[in-house]
Amino acid sequence: MRKIVLAGLSLLLLLSLPFTAWGASNLSTEQKFEALKQKNIFTGFADGSSRLYEPMSREQLAAVLFRLMELPAGNAAPSYNDVLKTRWSFKEIEAVTRAQLMNGTKTRIFSPEANVTVEQLAVILVRSYGLSGGGSTPVTGRVSKWARGAVSLALDRKLIPQLGDYTVDANRGLLVEAAYTVYEDTHVEPLKVRSVEQISNQSVRINLLQWVNSYDTSIDTSRFVLKDGYGNSRTVYQATISQDGMSIVLWTDRQIAGLFHTLSIDGNVWSYTSASDDTTKPTIVSQPVKLPNRAYELRFSEPVDQSSATNANNYQFNNGLKIKTLQLSPDQRVVTFTTSDQAEDKTYQLTVRNVKDLAGNVMDTRSDLYINNVKPKVTEVKIDVTTAIVSVVFKEKIDPQQAVQTYHYSIDKGLVVTQAVLENDGKTVTLRTSPQQDGSYYTLTISGIPDLAGNVMDPSTNWKFGAVSNPVIQATVQSISAVNQNTLEIVFNRALSDADVKNVKITNLTDNGPGASMSDWSAFVQRTPGSDRAVTIQYRTRSSGNPALFTSGHVYTARVTGVAGLNASGGADTTAFGGTVVSNPVPYATQAIVLDGNTIKVMFSEPIKNASRFAFYINEKDGGELRIDSIDPDDKGNIVTEVILRLKDGLQPRKQYAVSFRPDTITDAAGWNGWKTAEGNQPFFVYFNT
């Protein structure tokens, strides 16, 4: 392990410790203990436990400080009568005493087994930083007068949490949190840099190969040294980590345009040539975005100057509204402001002027910015007479999280709202209710829903709708899949009526993103054999007949329509599916089975029509043809998956027969594709034995 002298460590900690929330880390205190235990800074008890909630003794604290700060052991005579050389903590206590981190409780008395209070821990930690005096954080809890300044400094650096009483005993968990922060800041890994690029003449972006974590968005500027081609050092004022942790922006003093620059990052040197002087004016890129408590955000196109961006004279409202506070974000692109009290249902015009970018370019005055305190209103309530779904339509888009909370909707006569769904337009909410009573009407009240700006509606009452006592069970699309390059299968959650099958359609087709035209397509819809919840839709085009429409390597989306009570909430009627390499095959006979001496059954690969007895030949293998007397069903318009052939000539036992097929007779169910009658240059046969 590397050796760190106390003075150097104190300076490093002072410069690099992040001002973070107490306990801010992806790790729990227990996990931090385990990490420090692996580094031999903490040791567990004999039973393997950490005992984080037990009080911490003075000699335990001395041992942790000794290992954490890698203090020299030395070989001094005992400084305390109660800590002899034979005591397990002798060298640790002597080391922290020499480093002036801890002192005795009395003359030549250390009291090694006495507990450490929170305020004592704060004093020792602050002393290790080489600090004195008071901090900026107010101390509201109980604290001794001699420790108040140290407790405030420890709170500044988030080494201890806010407490109501700092005179209580500190537990081992408090020491783990503080020690982990110190260890992380004294073992900084060099940044892994992918590239360096200049953003402006006062900012540089460092693109990283590896994600970095920071409890806030800042990083120690001493890790970066910037010089121009003449050897002049450029000051790095601030280093800000991006939200995704994959880049760092350095804010510097002004860099001369067109000069070669070198940037040292943790000792590794990168170079770039500074860009031409910035002459582009900053602009406001959006209308003010409302935040809670009358706060708003204004986003600029580039980083802006702190003094001009937070000057209240550069912002002016009409109608007597005043700016109360102004704050610039760490990346210097977003101004957050608060206002005086706003009148209800009133819109205010905002004018912004004189805000500069970092190069000194002044924005053009903007007078087309607006904020309002207009509450959302309900414009319509209606019920679907098929499904009994109640639709509530608002005048503007509303808060999506609040819109779906059922307690905002109340109905009289004991009717309960069981589900609320916000539709894609952001303004329509569909409500499902408990069973409605025939011959009744209900009154709906809506209240407490805010718009996207946070303005909360007034209660909207007396919306009446008639009951629907026997609604159609809602249908939901479960899947769409490509059976082949011309045919889709759609599966629903419930059985489909004949009307559903007749009316179902695919619309709004997209192919790898862009929309695909279906204007030239013809569709044939039928139930999927063996299922009452699925349909297959076979397509062809007038121009190409039977083309490949759903091909491998493509992602399609399609909207389903035409089914009664279809759930369309949140795009539930739109589903993605993949293409396939399977081409649309022609139908063919798959099997022939003997039922008795004069009857055979022929089965097909898919539903077919135009079946007649003249479409089949039956021959004894290597023998003569058998005459077919009739076919069942005997209706060419029927769509079937099998037929029964009755023969005039009886079948002979223990013989093999073959069925062959006449061209230009049977087709698929759509009537678009003829059936398979040949394999290459040879007739296609299906054999069966008696």
Overview of this protein structure:
- The chain is an alpha+beta fold and 690 residues long.
- It has six domains: 6-186, no CATH class; 193-273, Immunoglobulin-like; 289-372, Immunoglobulin-like (Sandwich); 392-466, Immunoglobulin-like, CATH 2.60.40; 477-578, Sandwich (Immunoglobulin-like); 589-689, Immunoglobulin-like (Sandwich).
- It has ten helices and 40 strands.
- Strands 30, 31, 34, 35 and 37 form a five-stranded antiparallel β-sheet that branches. It has a four-stranded antiparallel β-sheet with strand order 1-2-6-5, with no helix packed on it.
- The longest helix has 15 residues, at 172-186.
- The radius of gyration is 40 Å and the shape is elongated.
- The model is unreliable at 1-24 (pLDDT under 50).
What distinguishing features does this structure have?
single chain; 690 residues; Immunoglobulin-like; SLH domain-containing protein; signal
Shape, per Cα inertia axes: elongated
Q: How many distinct helices?
A: 10
Identify the quaternary structure here. Answer: single chain
Overall structural class, as computed from helix and strand content, comes to: alpha+beta
List low-pLDDT spans.
1-24
Main sheet characteristics: 5 strands, antiparallel
Number of strands: 40
Number of domains: 6
Secondary structure: helix percent:
10-25%
The Cα radius of gyration reads 40 Å
N- to C-terminal distance: 89 Å
* Percent of residues in β-strands: 25-35%
Write the layout of secondary structure elements.
Elements: H1 6-16, H2 29-38, H3 58-68, H4 90-98, H5 118-128, H6 148-156, H7 172-186, E1 193-200, E2 203-208, E3 224-228, E4 233-234, E5 236-241, E6 247-252, E7 260-265, E8 268-273, E9 289-291, E10 295-299, H8 306-309, E11 315-317, E12 323-328, E13 334-339, E14 347-352, E15 366-372, E16 378-383, E17 390-394, H9 400-403, E18 409-411, E19 417-422, E20 428-433, E21 441-446, E22 460-466, E23 477-484, E24 487-492, H10 498-503, E25 505-511, E26 521-527, E27 534-541, E28 555-561, E29 574-578, E30 589-596, E31 599-609, E32 616-620, E33 625-626, E34 628-632, E35 640-647, E36 656-661, E37 667-668, E38 678-679, E39 682-683, E40 686-689
Antiparallel strand pairs: 1-2, 2-6, 3-4, 3-7, 5-6, 7-8, 9-10, 10-13, 11-14, 12-13, 14-15, 16-17, 17-20, 18-21, 19-20, 21-22, 23-24, 24-27, 25-28, 26-27, 28-29, 30-31, 31-35, 31-37, 32-33, 32-36, 34-35, 36-40, 38-39
Helix pairs in contact: 2-7, 3-4, 3-7, 5-6
Organism: Cohnella terricola
Domain SLH: 76-139
Signal peptide: 1-23
